[in-house]
Amino acid sequence: MKETVLITGVAGLLGSRLADYILINHPEYKVVGIDDLSGGYIENVPKEVHFWKMDLTDKNIENCFKTYNPKYVFHFAAYAAEGLSPFIRTYNYTNNLLATANIVNNCINYNVKRLVFTSTMAVYGHGEGGIFHEDMRRNPIDPYGVAKAACERDIEIANEQHGLDYCIIRPHNVFGANQNIWDEYRNVLGIWMYYHMEGKPITIFGDGTQKRAFSYIDDSLEPLWNAAIRPEASKQIINLGGIHEYTINEAADILAECIS
After folding, report:
1. What pLDDT, on a 0 to 100 scale, did the predictor assign at position 184?
2. N or C terminus of the chain with fewer C-beta within 10 Å?
3. CB atoms within 10 A of CB 241
4. Calpha distance 137→160 (Å, rounded)
């Protein structure tokens, strides 16, 4: 009998692409996916995935764990909207912190071998001179970052108190196939694509010389899988992102060329 991998947020960018990756490269695993389709699309979910449409705050999520007894859990579901989070505090904490607590409880109760949790660079706040490294203290400056930082600490405590193994991944500016470009508060490349399709000018704050690295989703899939299976990833916090920096102006020019 195949062992099971459970992916939350399976209809989104990370979840759907990782599901594809596992089904192709690790067919010895069954893939189960959960999504409430509030930010992802059912068309993104591979047909081989055992799909559950469900809100993660629903206590009935235990039925999914009971049915499949997953070996690894990838918890990708979240509402990532840093700029909007001060105005949707209850929604932010419900869909990020409370939902994660529900996942953590079930991972403990059903002896999941490892939980892989995608956090955010927002837990660093302003960082130290614009440089972000994993041993920096958490210092979020918005409710979204606060929620994710609290999730991280809760997972660490679950390890300390209950032995739940984990790997926390902090992705950075991920883009690619199955990306939601219709939400104007998500990834900047998606926002710009949306503006282009709506006939609106691309908006750049400041002079555009600030630099960012961007991460193609397919380059992130093997590292995400390794976060679950590699012994050295146990109880680690890992920044995951591109290594080449571009100014915002350069990124906007490249995108404009691609979509023109």
Report:
1. 65
2. N
3. 17
4. 19
